[in-house]
């Protein structure tokens, strides 16, 4: 957005602030399409308020959501109905994850908070043979392609904020209250490191300043 006139950037920032929507949740249904219709154990790393973990629980026998923030884990437990196959615990990734093996591991907007290669290696070791890893992550724009894709997302971002909030100003969704920090790895470095740890991993830049990574354990 830095290539846009400054006054337009300010206007869009004000509009987005009053019409917020969860860019990560936008990819939850896409994540489900990468997974089997039924599976045993799932691990959601950086689970936040538990939206994705509860979706996974509609297909899984058990789902473990982990996050380093005790406050947001408490919120996830409060929002999860009794009898749901999802549990939540405070854990620092990568060293203290539930060992599994898990048939599915997901990680949305959390990998840039972790030591990248170490985290992917831990996910690989905790994934069951034939299991699926799905990551939705953030990257630092560096190339012309990165900046063009970011610019292309500006108007759809505002339009979706308007539609999801039915044209009204809205409070920030609970799922967006977790601590965040900017990504520091460019996409090319992410792809190179990921394919070293996870041969055959598929990575793709996406709209709304995200990338996706999928890998199936041999």
Describe the protein.
It is a single chain. The chain is α/β, with parallel strands linked by helices and 218 residues long. It has one domain: Vaccinia Virus protein VP39 (Rossmann fold, 3-Layer(aba) Sandwich). 35% of the residues lie in helices and 23% in strands. Strands 3-2-1-4-5-7-6 form a seven-stranded mixed sheet, sandwiched between helices. β1, α3 and β2 form a beta-alpha-beta unit. α5 packs parallel to α8. The termini are far apart.
List its salient traits:
single chain; 218 residues; alpha/beta; Rossmann fold; seven-stranded mixed sheet; 8 helices; 7 strands; 23% strand; globular
Concise overview:
Helix content is 35%, strand content 23%. The chain is an alpha/beta fold and 218 residues long.
